[in-house]
Design goal:
ROC; 1004 residues; seven-stranded mixed β-sheet; Arc Repressor Mutant, subunit A; single chain; 6 domains; nucleotide-binding; Rossmann fold; nine-stranded antiparallel β-sheet; globular; repeat; EC 2.7.11.1; kinase; 38 helices; alpha+beta
Length: 1004
């Protein structure tokens, strides 16, 4: 029987191997039948399935069905696959999901391109591209080789609180706009109405430095873009694919071949080196002049043919000489919009931060009291000023921390005409005002953003020379930025112009198919991988919003106003008029508990303006993805009689196994995990917990609790929206806990849901809870366990605590836009992890930086205690719960004992620093190590400028040498700091120490 069973297993394995081989063979044959452009459309679909199955292993059926649907409806149709081929590929997708190992085989055997060769990086490439994977750099380089421009763009962001004069200033900066109104209009009404959301004006800078709104052409894009750089790729008489000199029979046979497909395949064709070549091509094209795709191109050829002095064309020249462009972004100042602006703040900008010179810094912003979920009450003008500067620094600096501080902020004082002082004193008063406002930023990097020259304006005097001076200053600063004169592919510029035209036509949210159609209509098209890269770059630049998720990757948001309008639907209460009477109880529930039931959700969408209403489903998907709202999670233990189908819930994950915290083995009980059929909007939570509830949440008496894990944000600043979005992520990750202790009747317990404004409690398993809250710039988390065991070591599940910490970290990184995107650019999060002394619960008291514990091992806690209560804290006592993985590795790596023969107590020699530099050359954390070593930002920037171009290894060596020169600390200190930065991985550290040992022995 055993032999028979073994034979059956062997036959099964052989059958599976044969199926896998057939699948690989099929994919190879299909790919071989396609040109490069076709493979560029097919490969991302195959890779997405294979990589999801191999890297995460949790590809859901919903995602798989979405991929299949997109393939059948879009990709297969575009590529012209017949039904049989389409079925085969869909079958392979499904096999990857069900058969272990097939996805790995496909990646290994189908995609055997040589990816070892590192593409050459052009210094004029955008720094975002330079920090991407080699494959992305190669795609961008390929696009540049087909023609490029050295672009000159300015992105000017005009920010400040409401009614400060932002729109009026913009109207004075842009020639085509105006503040002028009829004389009979009262002075207080002369100013334009407040901006709703964000207004964007795309302008050309003329030779007199005037900013004039760009007039977008309605004709095909290639008519005003086609230049010599493009002519080289057009077919000539030598082109075997497109020989116009052949007989009429050829044209009848090939008359349906689109012009764009013929042009796409001409990468290696001869270039137009003489005027005769050009004329010959022109004559050949004339023979197909009635074809739709050729007709538009022909007009351009006519213009070219009539030029008097035509010159030979060099191979792939850059396109130059175009006017610089400035896009002016007028941000609404109402507090309502503060939670959405960060989508568009980035380092590729120059900012004008406006303040009203007639209001004192301690003046309350009138509307703040009504939006306590977004900003605190008694929000002052100084708070608004600090909020904007902190936001600019936080959201503009986190992505590229190895470059010097960007962007520049120009301070502008408004309402000059209403200042109560002499004309001679107004400039001095303005400088005193801003100096006072900036005092709170002394000794912070934020001051590096501030431009030394300030401007004072009266927006009612549109001919005031100050506006010319301001324009000139903006252009001068832009010319010093890293993105000035960077190289952009012509094909990408064409796509950008397509987007601009769509915006001009009033389009705000478009489908991915619209992007593909725009690409096909351009003379310079891109393949599918390049198109995805283009969208990723545009998203990073803040020009569009495009999220590469199964639900949202089909959409592209062109206009920032759209996402703001969608956000407004759920955080304002302007739906108070003409409500449906039958929904009054739902409105009341929303106002009190921030709960939106489906009928109310439908009413909110239907009552919104048309631009939102027609995309109702997408609005909800975006709000869920951005963690503006979330469906609560619910877990129920399954009995044999339980029915998995539930009309009031949608099953998110069926039969989830509950782990026993002691053995970490599956229990015998199974759980059904569901998403309840309503949404919660955390920023709308109004209820505040009473003092008794707060005390029970922060320090419960009958629970075993961990020390508080603290995410402490830099510069004492954290937008409240960050916590609200983290709370939404928690709502969909864990079930909201309830308080049953107040119950007087056991039969009908009076449960209280533990979710409030700024605080939440979640069930992480049957006997544990996560308590999370925030205060000012710190987010706190504490795990609590219910157990009869009195020993906390046994009652507290360290593995669960560690997993919760990782989940919180992952959500925060996603919220801040910091998920890993590049192997070259290290991300510096705007916060650090701290642990609070187990004996303290007061805000911002007794906090210890986690990395300091890894380096030093023991510290003293005297903050928040009387002198006689001060006590030492060992790393094991505070790290063992939240950082059990790091603690375990530190226990395994006793540096002095494990690597005997290494002298760790001496100052390292230069050759030893070289060994360490080689060991860290592939590290993603090299810049963080410099920060950990205490090297100043300006020094790091100088070292990078001088040595990074040679190699990363050389840069790291000089960074370590700078540390040695200034600190003169022992090698053991350096090793511990390396471990602190790499605390979740010891492989690199072990390899470095082995090399050090060999080096020291060689010297001896």
């Amino acid at each position: 029987m055993e032999d028979s069973g073994g034979q059956e297993i062997q036959e099964t394995n052989e059958n599976e191997d044969e199926e896998a081989n057939d699948a690989v063979k099929t994919l190879k044959e299909v790919r071989a039948s396609l040109n490069e452009n076709g493979r560029g459309q097919l490969d991302p679909e195959i890779r997405e399935v294979a990589e999801e199955c191999t890297q995460r292993g949790d590809l859901s059926l919903k995602i798989l069905l979405e991929i299949n649907r997109n393939f059948v409806n879009v990709v297969a149709v575009t590529l012209g696959f017949n039904l049989e081929t389409t079925k085969k590929i869909v079958s392979i997708f499904n096999m990857c999901w069900t058969k272990q190992g097939l996805a790995e085989k496909i990646i290994k055997e189908v995609y055997t391109e040589d990816e070892d060769e590192t593409p050459e990086v052009d210094e004029q490439m955008p720094i975002e591209i330079q920090g991407m994977e080699d494959s992305a750099i190669a795609l961008y380089a390929k696009a540049l080789n087909q023609g490029f421009e050295e672009v000159q763009r300015i992105r000017l962001m005009v920010v400040g609180m409401f009614s400060v004069g932002k729109t009026s200033l913009v109207n004075n900066l842009v020639e085509d706009l105006s503040n002028k109104k009829p004389p009979e209009v009262l002075e207080e009404d002369q100013f334009p109405p407040s901006t709703e959301g964000i207004d964007v004006h795309l302008c050309i800078i003329d030779q007199q430095n005037k900013w004039r709104k760009q007039q977008l052409s309605r004709k095909p894009l290639y008519e005003d873009r086609l230049t010599q750089a493009q002519f080289e790729d057009l077919p000539t008489v030598h082109d075997e694919h497109m020989d116009f000199s052949r007989s009429e029979d050829y044209y009848e046979e090939d008359e349906e071949t689109p012009m764009k497909n013929v042009i796409d395949d001409q990468e290696d064709q001869p270039t137009l080196e003489t005027n005769n070549d050009f004329k010959r091509v022109y004559q050949n094209v004339q023979q197909r002049k009635n074809e739709p795709d050729v007709k538009a191109v022909l007009e351009v050829f006519k213009e070219k043919n009539n030029e008097e002095n035509e010159k030979p064309v060099d191979a792939k020249p850059p396109i130059t000489g175009r006017e610089p462009l400035v896009s002016v972004w007028d941000f609404a100042g109402q507090n309502l919009y503060y939670s959405t602006h960060h989508f568009f703040l980035n380092k590729r900008s120059i900012y004008l931060l406006l303040m009203n010179m007639t209001k004192s810094l301690d003046t309350d912003v009138a509307e703040s009291a009504s939006l306590s979920g977004l900003l605190h009450k008694h929000f002052t003008c100084l708070d608004s000023f600090k909020f904007w500067l902190n936001s600019i620094h936080m959201y503009s600096s986190i992505h590229d921390q190895e470059y010097e501080v960007h962007p520049t902020v120009i301070l502008v004082g408004t309402h000059k005409d209403k200042m109560k002082c002499s004309e001679e004193d107004k400039e001095d008063k303005m400088n005193e005002f801003f100096d006072k406002a900036l005092e709170s930023f002394i000794d912070t990097p934020i001051l590096k953003h501030i431009h030394e020259k300030k401007f004072l304006v009266n927006n009612l005097q549109d001919r005031d020379p100050v506006f010319n001076e301001l324009r000139a200053e903006v252009k001068m600063l832009a010319e010093k930025q890293h993105y000035w004169n960077e190289k952009s592919p012509v094909s990408f510029i064409e796509l950008e112009k397509s987007f601009d035209t769509m915006r001009e036509e009033g389009k705000e949210l478009i489908n991915y198919t619209d992007v593909q159609a725009a690409n096909r209509n351009n003379i310079k098209t891109v393949d599918e991988p390049q198109l995805r890269l283009f969208l990723e770059l545009q998203h990073m630049f803040g020009n569009i919003l495009h999220f590469d998720t199964p639900e949202l990757k089909q959409f592209v948001i062109l206009a920032p106003k759209w996402i703001i309008e969608a956000f407004k639907c759920f955080i304002t209460h302007k739906h108070t008029h003409n409500k449906k009477p039958e929904h009054l109880h739902l409105w009341k529930e929303y106002k009190l508990c921030a709960i939106i039931k489906p009928p109310l959700l439908e009413e909110i969408i239907q009552r919104s303006n048309e631009r939102i209403r027609i995309h109702g489903k997408a609005v909800i998907q975006y709000m869920e993805h951005l963690n503006v709202m979330a469906k609560p999670l619910c877990t129920e233990e399954l009995d044999d009689e339980d029915d998995d189908d539930d009309d009031t819930s949608t099953v998110a994950e069926n039969r989830k196994v509950c782990l026993d915290s002691k053995s970490h083995k599956p229990e015998f009980s199974f759980y059904n995990t569901k998403m309840l059929d309503f949404h919660i909007v955390p920023c709308q939570l109004q209820a505040k917990p009473d003092d008794e509830i707060i005390e029970k949440i922060k320090s419960p008496s009958n629970w075993h609790t961990t020390p508080a894990l603290c995410f402490v944000f830099n510069d004492n600043f954290m937008p409240p929206a960050v916590f609200h979005r983290l709370l939404a992520a928690c709502i969909r990750s864990w079930e909201i806990a309830k308080d049953k202790t107040r119950s007087e009747q056991r039969q009908k317990p009076n449960e209280q849901t533990l979710l409030f404004n700024g605080i939440g409690v979640f069930k992480t398993c049957k006997r544990s809870q996560l308590r999370i809250w925030y205060h000012d710039h710190i987010i706190y988390g504490r795990m609590a366990f219910m157990s009869q065991c009195k020993d906390p070591e046994k009652a507290i599940d360290k593995v669960l605590c560690q997993n919760v910490r990782r989940t919180l970290y992952k959500h925060l990184m996603a919220i801040l836009g910091l998920l890993p995107r590049s192997k070259h650019i290290t991300k510096t999060a705007p916060y650090e992890e701290y642990i609070q002394c187990p004996k303290l619960t007061d805000h911002n008291c007794g906090l210890f930086r986690v990395n300091d514990f890894i380096i030093d091992g023991e510290m003293s806690c005297d903050e928040g205690h009387d002198l006689d209560e001060a006590h030492p804290i060992e790393k094991s006592s505070v790290l063992k719960y939240w950082f059990s993985d790091a603690m375990k590795e530190m226990e395994e790596i006793q540096l002095e004992n494990l690597f005997e023969g290494i002298d760790l107590e001496k100052v390292p020699e230069d050759d030893e620093l070289s060994v360490i530099g080689r060991g860290l050359a592939k590290s993603k954390e090299f810049w963080l190590l410099g920060i950990e070593l205490g090297i100043k930002q300006v020094t790091m920037e100088l070292l990078k400028r001088d040595h990074f171009k040679v190699s990363r290894e050389t840069f790291i060596y000089h960074m370590l040498y700078e540390w040695k020169k200034t600190k003169q600390e022992p090698l053991s200190k350096l090793v511990r700091k390396i471990h602190a930065v790499h605390k979740n991985s010891t492989e690199e550290l072990g390899s470095i120490l082995e090399c050090l040992k060999e080096q020291q022995q060689r010297v001896i």
